[in-house]
Amino acid sequence: MTERFDVAVVGAGFAGSLLAMIARQLGLRVILLERGRHPRVVIGESSTPLSNLLLEELATRYGLAGIRPLSKWGSWRHSRPELACGLKRGFSFFHHAPGQVEAIERAKQLLVAASPHDAIADTHWYRADFDAYLAAEAQRLGVAYLDQVELRDFADAGPEARLLGTSNGRQIAISARLVVDATGPRGFLHRALRLGERPIPEMPATVALYSHFSGVNRLEETGGIALEAEPPYPVDDAAVHHIFDGGWVWVLHFCNGVTSAGIAATDALAKELRLAEGEPAWERVLLRLPVLRSQFEGAKTVQPFRHLPRLAFRSAAVSGRTWALLPSAAGFADPLLSTGFPLTLLGVARLAEVLEEDWGTERFAVRLENYAEATDAELRAAARLIGALYANFGNFPVFAAVSLLYFAAVSYAETARRLRRPGLAPSFLLHDHPHFGAECAQVLERARSVHGDADSKRLIEDILKVIEPIDVAGLADRTRRNWYPVDAEDLLRAAHKLGASRDEVLQMLARCGFSALAAARS
Q1: What is the rounded CA–CA span in Å between residue 147 and residue 168?
Q2: Who contacts 134 (Cβ-Cβ below 8 Å, separation ≥6)?
Q3: Helix (H, G, I), strand (E, B) or coil at 191
Q4: Which of 127, 157, 294, 501 reaches 20 to 30 Å from 8, CA-CA?
Q5: Average pLDDT value for the chain
Q6: How confident is the model at residue 43 (pLDDT cuts 50, 70, 90)?
Q7: In whole angstroms, what is the distance from residue 306 CA to residue 161 CA?
Q8: CB contact set of 189 (below 8 Å; sequence gap of 6+)
Q9: Residue 158 confidence class, pLDDT cut points 50, 70, 90
């Protein structure tokens, strides 16, 4: 017998469960299908200020009371201490010369704070706990749920789509007016519909290797970095990026003693390190980076190494009459800068609006097409940025300057949303902004082929000019020498860039718990 639903979501990761909850809150009949069984480990673990703000907005708009506290470190640890997460106060970057044993000096560091104190800080999501909790919340709200699902067929049959397969060995047949794929790159619908791939010309071919570890030291305790003054936040309480020519290593600490770490590298470096070999390849990475090796001295893996031979992906299609891919299934550039979370949450928000405003109307198909166009355009914007960063792993001054394009765009977007002016920043990285979007694309194209010191200096100057009109975080202040705190005065001085008054910014800061005292009282 065929079970009928309005929406079927395939994939019970955080985004699939979140969309399923929203659809259910809108009064639709929803089923959530999971190939595996919770808890399980997946890549993608570090949130961002924009990600957490989007999560908070969605939870507030659609009445997801069980999700809203998870948008900040303080409220998460207070309300759900049993769910592991990591404290993320900012983004830390350290540039390594080949075989460098000396402490990394300040000129080779980039520290960008994301919060003024722990209570409203971002988090690393320990996905085994986080995803399982969201799937359970979806069921609590009335979403039908099946796991151990093997889907063997998808048919687009006019007004409905049909899914056939098994769940825990039992035959299942499901029809739905909309099927949403949340299974990740090259996932279920991409394979079932043979959608094919489009190139991402801005990105090099890349490979990843990663695992979870216990017993990882804190970098600041190893003496591997030179701290000539008090940094804007504890440098390990961050998404830590170790940059070197051809690749980068991430290190994320969770509160349960687990540390996520891995390497993403160009094909050439991946072959040189033989990343497909797993643990022996990781040992070769540590031999190449002595500063990092001291941090992992005595560490043990708590999960098998996972090797991803192709990171970059772009589906040839994103939606059809009865189906849509979430951004996480439509494409992926790289874990660098944690762009996947905001891209995916922006997509969830857009699909939620389509369901809320145009479900069952003649406009529904057009809205899905618009969603698909926005999803692909934002993937390309992320790829332009990340491709330019890869091109400058060996040129840290340019790498740091290119990174500021990202931080300027997302801090502007976050502030605009917090000031209740989301129309100022409707797209990721402001890629369709009438001025910043085009100027950013131009300097990123130049950054892909920088020749010599003079060219580097000219490009850095031009990047600072591009970000100045949207800089609300003091990123163009050279006296900060690549250490950027969160400073209320930066926002107050930049109020005019957002069409706001000083009082409006002060009110926004109070609402957000900017001061530790206000956060403690809220």
Answers
A1: 7
A2: 12, 14, 17, 18, 21, 67
A3: helix
A4: 127
A5: 96
A6: confident
A7: 34
A8: 10, 154, 179, 181, 183, 195, 323, 325, 329
A9: confident
Using DSSP's 3-state secondary structure scheme, residue 368 falls into helix
User: What domains sit in the chain, N to C, each tagged with a CATH number?
Assistant: 3-82+126-199+314-372 (3.50.50.60), 85-124+204-308 (3.30.9.100), 395-521 (no CATH)
Render pLDDT for 176-222 as a digit per residue (tens, 0 to 9).
999 999 999 999 999 999 999 999 999 999 999 999 999 999 999 99
Are 486 and 473 within 8 A, CB to CB? yes
Residue tagged 């891209």 (tokens): 343
Q: How many CB atoms within 10 Å of residue 158?
A: 8
Distance CA 237, CA 227 (A): 15
Residues near 499 by Cβ (< 8 Å), separated by ≥ 6? 421, 424
For 358, counting Cβ atoms within 10 Å of its Cβ (0-12 exposed, 13-18 middle, 19+ buried), the class is middle
Helix orientation angle between 340-358 and 14-25, rounded to the nearest 10 degrees: 20
N-to-C CA span, the chain: 51
Under a CB-based contact definition with an 8 Å cutoff, are residues 16 and 9 in contact? yes
Count Cα neighbours of 473 within 13 Å in the Cβ-side half-sphere. Answer: 26
Strand, helix or coil for residue 255: coil
C-alpha separations of 425 from 303, 328, 376, 409, 446 in Å: 39, 21, 17, 9, 24
SS3 category, 216: coil
**Which tokens belong to 210?**
């990663």
Residue 339 tokens, joined: 């762009």
With 0.90 as the threshold, say if the pTM is over it: yes
Using alpha carbons only, what angle is made at residue 186 by residues 369 and 334, rounded to the nearest 5 degrees?
A: 90
Task: Give the pLDDT confidence score for residue 516 in this predicted structure.
Answer: 56
Length of the chain equals 522
Q: Are 23 and 141 in contact (CB under 8 A)?
A: no
Tokens of 242: 């170790």
Cis peptide bond prior to 422, omega within 30° of 0: no
Between CA 220 and CA 216 the distance in angstroms is 12
User: Quick one: pLDDT at residue 311?
Assistant: 96
Q: pLDDT exceeding 70 applies to what percent of the chain?
A: 99
Residue 521 — very low, low, confident or very high, per pLDDT cuts 50/70/90? very low
Angle between helices 49-61 and 396-418 (to 10 degrees): 20
Q: What is the 3-class SS of 444-473, one letter each residue?
A: HHHHCCCCHHHHHHHHHHHHHHHHHHHCCC
Output the CA–CA distances (angstroms, integers) from residue 38 to 11, 129, 467, in the order listed: 11, 8, 43
Distance CA 119, CA 514 (A): 9
